Amino acid sequence: MDEADVRQRARSFVAKVDISNIRKDLSSYVTAANAKIKKDELGEGESGYTITKPNGKHIITVNSLETDERQRFTICHEIAHIVLGLESSHEEIPSWSYAKRHPNEIACDTFAAELLMPYRQWLSAVPKTEPSLELIQHMADLFATSFPATASRFASLSDLPCAFVTMELGAIRYAARSTPLRQAGAWISPRSGIPAGSVAHRIRSFGKNQTDMGEISQDVWFENWEKGLDLCELSRHYALTDTTISLLWFDSDDMPEIEVSRFGERVEDDGGLPELTGELPWPGRSRRR
Q1: Residue-wise pLDDT tens digits, 255-272
Q2: Cα–Cα distance measured from residue 218 to residue 263, given in angstroms and rounded to the nearest whole number
């Protein structure tokens, strides 16, 4: 089950539910999943879990010590496990961490984002302006979601060449790209270090909570990319967990002219055949005997 399959399953689930009040109340999702919510004080780093009774009823327990937005995400994440039929595999890894996380958990995060920020509601509500700290925070407040989850959603659904990058302990863990960037074959390598010259690299070096924005060269982030083109980077660092996030974007007019194969890989110019000039190359000096 790839990311596209997960998104389609989530949108089909949402389409069958009344989501008119979903930004404030998740009960319609809970009912549709044949579940019940229980809140309890859980251990640090444990956001929630689900137990299924013999009668088929699911009991979703969420950590009452976490923020409301975190609890909402956990509920939708656990609903994803139920709807997709995927087993939990938390393995002592914090729910906010992408490091070494099982594919089932990442798939359920994707499903949860679709439930919290429904596709059609998002598109009708998001301002048609350039990204900014204020815009992302406005959408986070509107959908009662975290800043990172909202920035990731923005990047995934943007018409701009846009990407959202999650970094932990100084290494890139995950990058969500908009359709224009995916079509252009733009690639940010996971598990590599935060690139020097990026806003993320600079603010992390201070070792404290900080948010900043700047203009940098596109090839700082994208591999095998044309030099001399700029992008905007909005970055935020969370010192407690040593997590850094960046929202990257630029105008479509600043997209390099490239060719992409049907596999989504960039086609490099190897010289190929010489350009046609209209002049025939024969007769030459040598002739066939």
Answers
A1: 887 555 554 555 554 554
A2: 23
Instruction: Say how far apart CA 205 and CA 252 lie, in whole Å.
Output: 31
Does the pTM surpass 0.85? The reply is: no
Q: How far apart are CA 263 and CA 47, in angstroms?
A: 38
Residue with the two structure tokens 């970055």: 235
Question: What confidence score (pLDDT) does residue 100 get?
Answer: 60
Task: For the chain, list the domains and their CATH numbers.
Answer: 1-116 (1.10.10.2910), 131-253 (3.30.450)
d(CA 146, CA 70): 7
Task: Annotate 217-252 with b (16+ C-beta within 10 A) or e (fewer).
Answer: bbbbbbeebeeeeebbbbbbbbeeeebbbbbbbbee
The mean pLDDT value for 37-47 works out to 91
| DSSP-H helix ranges across 144-209 | 147-157, 179-183, 199-204
How many other CB atoms sit within 10 Å of the CB of residue 210? 16
Q: Which residues of 262-281 are buried (b: 16+ CB within 10 A; e: fewer)?
A: eeeebeeeeeeeeeeeeeee
Range of lowest pLDDT (112-116, 139-143, 176-180, 261-265)? 261-265
List of E strands, 97-203? 162-168, 171-177
Q: For residue 152, what are the CA distances in angstroms to 68, 126, 158, 167, 253?
A: 19, 13, 10, 13, 23
Please check whether residue 74 is in contact with residue 48, taking contact to mean a CB–CB distance below 8 angstroms.
yes
Does residue 90 surpass a pLDDT of 70? no
Please give the Cα distance from 110 to 80 (Å, whole number).
9
